């Protein structure tokens, strides 16, 4: 009896899959009967469908469910969409406007997680009180089971996984392999982790006699701060998390002109979206309380448009 019911259920599920794979001759239609705007995969507007929004929903135990939003960026024949890289850029922007969670998970369209504890393991690194702010991403490189160990062409990638990645693990970190990765959002923006102050070791005379109490001048402190902010590649603009915590207005701007220059720099880097630019300065995530869902949706459509990246650093940095 149970076996028969299972077989019937299996037939129904497979039938739904086959029906979904086959595209109707007239194209897909929405519930109200209007044609779906994305029937032409290479020429369609930006689309967002909110399944679970700010009001959210509850599971069987009464716990709030996470937000669920479908996003499809705008594509036009005259614009280069840059495939997966462009999709990631759009995902970074639209998620910042709608939810602005501090962490992001990237998976290929045909990949899934077979270990429910994987994300919790990633959070152990991301939320570490001592090292969390220095972690860019935690990834789970894909490896395949059941492959013939003697078949050199079976894509086992022994050298890549067992030698290259582990060798790079001690030199800042291994390369991003393209899927199965949890990112720190601020790292994707190009912000660098906070710089820890260097504590000088006291010598014998200093420890016994107390050493000198020479005060550091204000100009010297400013000079040291500028030097420390350039510890990375000098060709790449550097933004420290210490400045993000204080916000644009609290970063040492003395007049309106300096503040305007800072805003122009942020717009040049992140694009012409005040909501998105503001979200990049919120280290702990979240969206402005004053923003309504309607405003956020309108802004989300804007940041996934084809021309949004023009005259910005998207795709260049």
Write out the strand line-up for the largest beta sheet, numbering strands in chain order: 3-5-4
Write the H/E string, N to C.
HEEHEHEHEHEHHEHHHH
CA-based shape: globular
Structural class: mainly alpha
Number-wise, the strands total 7
What is the rounded Rg? 25 Å
Give the averaged pLDDT, no decimals.
Answer: 77
Q: Report the end-to-end length measured between terminal Cα atoms.
A: 61 Å
Tell me what portion of residues adopts beta-strand conformation.
Answer: 5-15%
Contiguous low-pLDDT stretches (5 residues minimum) are: 202-253
- Helical content class: 25-40%
In DSSP terms (H or I, runs of 4 or more residues), the helix count works out at 11
Binding site for Mn(2+): 84, 108
Region (Disordered): 211-236
Cofactor: Zn(2+); Mn(2+)
Family: Belongs to the glycosyltransferase 2 family. Plant cellulose synthase subfamily.
């Amino acid at each position: 009896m149970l076996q028969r019911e299972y077989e019937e259920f299996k037939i129904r599920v497979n039938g739904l899959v086959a029906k979904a794979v086959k595209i109707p001759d007239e194209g897909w239609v929405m519930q109200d009967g209007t044609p779906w705007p994305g029937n032409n995969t290479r020429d369609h507007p930006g689309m967002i469908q909110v399944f679970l929004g700010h009001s959210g929903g509850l599971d069987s135990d009464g716990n709030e469910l996470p937000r669920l939003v479908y996003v499809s960026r705008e594509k036009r024949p005259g614009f280069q969409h840059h495939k997966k890289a462009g999709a990631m850029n759009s995902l970074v922007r639209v998620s910042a406007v709608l939810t602005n969670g501090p962490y992001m998970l990237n998976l290929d369209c045909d990949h899934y997680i077979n270990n429910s504890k994987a994300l919790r393991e990633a959070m152990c690194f991301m939320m570490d009180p001592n090292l969390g702010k220095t972690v860019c991403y935690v990834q789970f490189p894909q490896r395949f089971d059941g492959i013939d160990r003697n078949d050199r062409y079976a894509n086992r990638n022994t050298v890549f996984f067992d030698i290259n990645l582990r060798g790079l693990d001690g030199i800042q970190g291994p390369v991003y392999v393209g899927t199965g990765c949890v990112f720190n959002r601020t790292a994707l923006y190009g912000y660098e982790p906070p710089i820890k102050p260097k504590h000088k070791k006291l010598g014998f005379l200093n420890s016994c006699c107390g050493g000198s109490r020479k005060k550091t001048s204000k100009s010297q402190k400013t000079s040291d701060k500028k030097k420390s902010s350039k510890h990375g590649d000098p060709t790449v603009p550097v933004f420290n998390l210490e400045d993000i915590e204080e916000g644009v207005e609290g970063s040492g701007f003395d007049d309106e002109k300096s503040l305007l220059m800072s805003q122009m720099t942020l717009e040049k880097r992140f694009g012409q979206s005040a909501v998105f630019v503001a979200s990049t300065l919120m280290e702990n995530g979240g969206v402005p309380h004053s923003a309504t869902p309607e405003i956020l949706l309108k802004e989300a459509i804007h940041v996934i448009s084809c021309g949004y990246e023009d005259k910005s650093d998207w795709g260049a940095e």
